[in-house]
User: Fold this.
Amino acid sequence: MNLLLDNTFSTNHHISMSDKIKKISMYFLYFNTIDHVKCLDEDYRKIQDKERSTEPQIDIKYKILYFRDYYTNAVNDVFQSTKFGKCLYHLFYSANLLHENQMSFTMIQFTDESGSNGDDECDIVCNSPLVIQPTTSFPLLNDFSYSFPLLNDFSYSFYFPIINFHNAKLFFSQSLLTNPYICIDVFLITYLFHLDIDVFTSDYLTVVSSLYMKERILHDEETVATSLEYFIDYKREKIIKYLLQFKYTWTNFSFCYFFILYYPEQLRTNGLYDMFLKYIQSPQVERNTNIEKDIHNMLFNI
Assistant:
């Protein structure tokens, strides 16, 4: 499988995150990383491979990201099966691996990406936060009996050691404001940077609360407003410093929201719905820091 993308910051960040994730032991069991990259000019002609290229980035107009074979249409089948609990825990365990390596994962909305250069170099592929890889040598058989979902697309995920106040605007892309799976922490940081707000006032509170709640009906409006009230008259730098304390809750938050949105009945069947809803409706300081262990205990302890 491969993906043709414009040579943008998010594309290069995805490549960089993938390279870092490959340093995690047994990473291939949890993450769909990039195998290699091909660089193209504006006429879709190949420039040297990324590792050997001496071309400046300005001359590279597109990049083809190559992956192992994977499927997106099988993800729903797996979560609708009796493997739901095991697959769910697998994702939260994957998140914990990222946290141990100073990273977090941002769920993205499903989109279609396509690229064509007149030959078979580029396939039409799906950009999805989760993928399934076949466990058989004959993928056409669609045997996913032993497959688990892998985290996919790290374009908007974070590697915190390289993020500072001066470059954070690049990593907190404005597109995050319309991402339904992000918590108020990420939304507020993104909003402050892209609207160049130095001091957070009560006027901004009303606007931010309204925008955040617009398409995020699962949140508790009062909790969101209360969280924002804390920052009134504080400067942007202090607000961001405070919110970064909770950075390793952001992945779990997006998972909880995603599964409540798309798999509520499966969560109820496994006794997890209330736990997940409480997580996304809690203030930052009250988010469950042991949610992975609690999920394990609920699913597997007899």
Q: What stands out?
A: Residues 112-126, 136-141 have pLDDT under 50 and may be disordered. Residues 41 and 90 are 39 Å apart (CA to CA). Residues 2-81+112-151 form one domain. The beta strands are 2-6, 36-40, 62-66, 103-104, 111-113, 125-127, 130-131, 150-151, 158-159.
